[in-house]
Design brief:
Cytochrome Bc1 Complex, Chain D, domain 2, 2 domains, 5 helices, binds heme C
């Protein structure tokens, strides 16, 4: 009798295990699809640019919260498309308060960052940038 109960239980457990692994099999591609969904509208260059921007530039250019101050100006596509050449130059050479990146980044990497910035929408409430002025105003 006890043996029978154990056998039934074992069969039951096995069925649950099979179900769980099937579920994992079905769900994991769905999860993967969801994560990469964030990149849906970005091409490879823009994805590279976003990664580099987050690593190298975000510390000064991305506000940690919507209302906090950032050291540098918040960058988005309208700014970039009007000044693409200036932007490339500033990123390479730096400015008064920004380090230049021409020895750290390849020209193609700088272009990738610019390509990524061209996809960034203007933030709803642009936070006030530290006391950073725009380079072109100087
Ligand atoms: C140490 C902080 C710091 C880092 C890191 C930094 N920046 Fe800046 N950036 C600034 C500041 C501050 C300004 C405003 C100009 C000034 O005050 O010299 C600026 C200005 C700029 C401008 C000109 C904006 C305009 O409208 O004139 C661009 C473009 C720019 N940064 C891009 C980048 C990119 C791309 C990176 C990463 C590769 C980067 N910055 C990394 C601080 C930084």
């Amino acid at each position: 009798m006890v043996l029978l109960v154990i056998k039934v239980l074992k069969g039951f457990m096995r069925r649950i295990l099979v179900r769980v692994s099937l579920l994992t099999l079905i769900l994991s591609p769905l999860c993967a699809a969801q994560t990469s969904g964030l990149d849906k509208n970005l091409n490879d260059t823009q994805i590279l640019g976003r990664r580099l921007y987050q690593q190298r530039c975000g510390v000064c250019h991305t506000p940690p919260t919507l209302t906090s101050k950032v050291f540098g100006p918040v960058l988005y596509k309208d700014l970039v498309t009007r000044n693409e050449a200036t932007f490339q130059a500033v990123i390479g050479n730096g400015s008064k308060r920004m380090p230049g990146f021409k020895y750290e980044l390849q020209p193609s990497e700088i272009s990738a960052i610019v390509e990524y910035l061209k996809t960034v929408p203007k933030p709803a409430a642009a936070p006030v940038a530290g006391d950073g002025e725009h380079v072109r105003d100087q």
